[in-house]
Design brief:
Radius of gyration: 29 Å
Shape: elongated
Order of helices and strands: HHHHHHH
Number of strands: 0
Low-confidence stretches: none
Oligomer: single chain
Length: about 180
């Protein structure tokens, strides 16, 4: 690894305009962030920070590895026989979103903070598709009720068009668990 020294910040402007001066700063940054090597290096500060951020994003989405939690809760390694625990994904971040934003005054802007996990996103997608199916089949169901006298129209919300469905989704998304 090549050691580099900080270029003189008090150097003349003509020397600072040269490519060699900028290159010396680039080599200094490379030696500090990447240990003078490639980004793939495990000792590289950039790679360490990148993996730290990726791990925190996994935790926020509820996708982190649960082996360390299971190891902590079990008596012996792999012994989970007496535990009646649900290891499914929990959307922890969503519970704290308003805690973070409650101290902020909302006079000049509107905060839209949501935390989503895979399970709730899939449930939301399925519910929206069910509303779309009800919306498409409503004319046929009304005709069946009129001609046959059988009421097959589902109870609850049935949107009239896609715009109403989007509005319904925006309003109810914040209040549905």
């Amino acid at each position: 690894m090549k050691t580099t020294h900080t270029p003189d910040p008090l150097d003349t402007w003509e020397n600072k305009l040269k490519d060699s001066y900028g290159l010396s700063y680039a080599q200094l940054m490379s030696s500090q962030w990447f240990n003078g090597g490639m980004i793939d290096s495990k000792d590289c500060q950039y790679a360490t920070r990148s993996s730290y951020i990726a791990n925190k994003r996994l935790i926020a989405r509820g996708e982190q590895d649960d082996k360390k939690y299971k190891a902590h809760m079990s008596r012996q390694e792999g012994d989970e026989s007496y535990m009646n625990l649900d290891w499914s994904i929990v959307n922890v971040s969503g519970k704290f979103c308003r805690v973070v934003s409650n101290g902020i005054k909302d006079d000049y802007y509107n905060l839209d903070i949501r935390a989503n996990d895979r399970l709730s996103l899939q449930q939301k997608k399925n519910k929206m598709e069910m509303h779309r199916q009800n919306m498409r089949s409503l004319p046929l169901l009304k005709k069946a009720k009129q001609q046959l006298g059988i009421d097959l129209i589902p109870k609850g919300f049935i949107p009239e068009d896609e715009e109403e469905l989007k509005l319904y989704d925006q309003i109810n998304d914040k209040y549905v668990n």
